[in-house]
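[Meeting: bench + compute handoff]

Bench side (C.D.) handed over the final construct sequence. Compute side (W.E.) agreed to return the predicted structure before the next meeting so the bench team could plan truncations. Sequence as handed over:
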Amino acid sequence: MQIGLDFNLVEDLVAGVDEVGRGPLCGAVVTAAVILDPARPILGLNDSKKLTEAKREALFDEICEKALSFCIARAEVEEIDRLNILQATMLAMQRAVEGLHVTPKLALIDGNRCPKLAVPAAPVVKGDSQVPAIAAASILAKVTRDREMSAFELIYPGYGIGGHKGYPTPVHLEALARLGPTPIHRRSFGPVRAAWQAREGITDALI
């Protein structure tokens, strides 16, 4: 259920929801939902992209310790390719909210649209820099996804995944063209599809 945003409704048991990973060419899209505890304030919450890695890591632990409830969820590469990235993101957000062990009275979603939820919800454009609970969710999602990308660097060397986190940087695009897609690449994304088709063409020629 979606409602118009009225900050008079912002009270206890408000869940902030955010995502990380819509733009990358590989890996899951990761979401988080967080209900903060007014009795245990967390200083320094902000849009995760505006924080240093060290600050995000420190806040990650503090959020997990002090939040009334939090859930980190995801949609996998196969779901992104099957549903499209928008619908996969909405699905991951649904999973994050449904995974909270405390039912929120309101879910505030970063961006301009909301997933279908069983609780009232409202979008907040640039919410990760306005609503502390959304900022907390953005930090949990980004730290989780960044850690996964660093781990994939060891599994799939040569792509620079630990540095660019899957985004279509020149380094990533060059490696993709040279090495071809890995199992974690999103084949529904143009550059990945092109690299896959190019390698398929080379294989056919060799056969």
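W.E. noted at the follow-up: The radius of gyration is 18 Å. C.D. will use this when planning the next construct.
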